[in-house]
């Protein structure tokens, strides 16, 4: 992105200088022509949903009219939309939401970019609701797998994988987890010789799993990070970190937070991010 921006700005500057040499007597007209041409390219990039290019073009337009308010606002909007797209690709939906709201807050900004941001915010609202539901299902299957109830784990994941929505880009990290659970449970079903649990135990396990699906607090047995036990205080501290970053921590279970702490610790960080928690 930085290389592309530099290239386009340099190109715009070259066009500006060349135009000035060709007709020095009407430099102001040439300035406006170059500016309009670059702005048109930026607008076309917006129309095509290429906000990285749009940002670069609007920044390039500022080399011909440095104090131009329109180019400055448009560049800010395109930059925020590009950041939002990148955040979504990293599953950092709280960050994406903040960037999209920034686009809408520009009162004099591009109507097209505002409309795009509004549509994305509407989509993110649905995505975050679905992610909470899908995370619960993955968590249930994970617990069943840990309890060596491989058939239940397999059944849960197969049901989840049958949903078309689950295969969209917004759930790629959860899809990866689901596939790993399915592979593990299927493999263990072929090799496990442990007698099947009684119907009563199976019913109890199913009841407990269903309780988790309805949002009850779940646990990971003996969780640790960097060799130290993860306590309830650690979980509350992590939730506060999410809140400070604009994430709705209530959408994450204690298991989600625990895994987020472990991910951060593995990266050498003491602060978790929304992406660590699956937002």
UniProtKB/TrEMBL annotation:
<feature type="signal peptide">
    <location>
        <begin position="1"/>
        <end position="19"/>
    </location>
</feature>
<feature type="compositionally biased region" description="Low complexity">
    <location>
        <begin position="196"/>
        <end position="212"/>
    </location>
</feature>
<protein>
    <recommendedName>
        <fullName>Lipoprotein</fullName>
    </recommendedName>
</protein>
<keyword id="KW-0175">Coiled coil</keyword>
<feature type="region of interest" description="Disordered">
    <location>
        <begin position="192"/>
        <end position="256"/>
    </location>
</feature>
<keyword id="KW-0732">Signal</keyword>
<feature type="coiled-coil region">
    <location>
        <begin position="117"/>
        <end position="144"/>
    </location>
</feature>
